[in-house]
Amino acid sequence: MQRLYFSNLALCRKRPTTAFALMDNKPLLMLGLPKGSLQDSTIKLFGKAGFNISVSSRSYRPSIDDEELDGRFVRAQEVSRYVEHGYFDCGLTGQDWVKENDSDVVEVCSLVYSRASNKRSKWIIAVPEASTVQTVKDLEGKRIATEVVNITRQYLKDNGVNAEVEFSWGATEVKVPDLVDAIVDLTETGNSLRANKLRIVDTILYTNTVLIANKVSWGNPAKRKKIENIALLLTSALEANSKVGLKLNIEKSKLEAILSDLPALRNPTINRLADESWVAIDTILDEKVVREIIPELKERGAEGIIEYPLNKVVF
Length: 315
Fold this sequence. Notes:
5-stranded mixed beta sheet; D-Maltodextrin-Binding Protein, domain 2; globular; alpha/beta; 3 domains; single chain; 10 helices; Alpha-Beta Plaits; disordered N terminus
């Protein structure tokens, strides 16, 4: 019985050590990810950057294939507040929401992507096509609906205009002219504005997604290094979206003329081939010029032309 007692005691003494080990294995970073319209494009971007994120349709807790990362999906409007307060070490949200919330955070890098395009979005003042409002000055005494109340009020103040600004929970474009005189809304393509017969009076703010960090976390060397690595991979993945790789073989005698006449092939890698009268060219160029340059290369005698996609481009 005495041996059994000490054996059990030994087991009990091991438990705190196990618990301590589990605490040591907690993720290095807690990441704030945007729920809603940006969710799918954010998961896709992280995938291209090398981080596989999976989440069920009803869950806010993603699974990330990096043991140093944990995260939560929350509304983009809230990410900057949670980063500032330290619940998240870093997160992705719009520049507009950092400004709207007046969040004191570190902007690590700019990431120009969205649900519909890889262009910056903009907050605009819009009115019905038949409205008499032509400039911001004409909004004096009017009622305006928007999600970005603070940004709108500051814009009106800067322009010396007194108007009533009310918060809109969504579907803002349908509130004019029956409920309000004008709206401040976010647009990427302008399709919704045209569908609702609205006209832009002015642009208040251009915005895009940014990676932000908590200031205390940014001051931690290990966390900062991890955040900087994530920023590098995300920006290089975005850079690769608009570029492709191109390989081809060309006679050495034609090389100088091709490089001179086709500036898109700037600074290529040139390798010798078994046939010393030929060389191989490998380069990266903007995808939009490929359709023009490949026929030109073929006409000039290039062979073995291969276009291939890129996951990351690091300059």
